[in-house]
Amino acid sequence: xxxxxxxxxxxxxxxxxxxxxxxxxxxxxxxxxxxxxxxxxxxxxxxxxxxxxxxxxxxxxxxxxxxxxxxxxxxxxxxxxxxxxxxxxxxxxxxxxxxxxxxxxxxxxxxxxxxxxxxxxxxxxxxxxxxxxxxxxxxxxxxxxxxxxxxxxxxxxxxxxxxxxxxxxxxxxxxxxxxxxxxxxxxxxxxxxxxxxxxxxxxxxxxxxxxxxxxxxxxxxxxxxxxxxxxxxxxxxxxxxxxxxxxxxxxxxxxxxxxxxxxxxxxxx
Length: 269
Hints:
This protein is mostly beta strands. Among the domains are: 111-187, Sandwich (Immunoglobulin-like), CATH 2.60.40.10; 189-268, Immunoglobulin-like (Sandwich). The protein is 12% helix and 42% strand. It contains 1 helix and 18 strands. The strands form 5 sheets. Strands 3, 4, 7 and 10 form a 4-stranded mixed β-sheet that branches. The protein has a 4-stranded antiparallel β-sheet with strand order 6-5-8-9, with no helix packed on it. Strands 11, 12, 15 and 18 form a 4-stranded mixed β-sheet that branches. A hairpin with a 5-residue loop joins strand 1 and strand 2 (82-83). The protein starts with a helix and ends with a strand. The relative contact order is 0.10.
């Protein structure tokens, strides 16, 4: 009995010693086994939810209300003509747009020049020129010099300033930009002197000269020599009022003057 217990104890001790070795061997066997890794290919499938557009059709219904047309009584225009009016409204079409074209603004014209030349009894003479446009003076100057004026058509009034009756000739001239236009006029004159005397001595007074129509063309003093246009005149010599030695007037009818003539009239009191 005692022997059996000893044997059992011995066997248990032997097993306890051998147990780690067996475990170690088992571990070694497990670790010495070659390990093969098999790659696993993973495929990710991504699904996308597609949005399908949905077309929506809106149907608009309109309630149609019947229009009642009430005819009116006929209007009697004539025995043969009758017009029926219906209670309806006609819609006029929109008028076409109107385009207003503004006229182009003309650019101001440039300047030109006018040369006025006068002659008296065939010889050059001094005078004045005035350019008129629609009766309004635009420019004026002395003849014999260049007169600058805007381009255009004018009436040139040329006056012989040396004659007492101031004779004037009118011409239509066109002034062009950058150019010079000429205007000429000729005058025919005579020389007239009116003398007022008493007992052979000069007395103060004046002489009024009128043309055939009675228009007063000039007034000159006693013993004054004046150039005047040729023609036929009526001359009235009058003593200055208040002169104590003489008074009154003398008249000369049908005084005819020709070109280049020198004539003297003597009024004696």
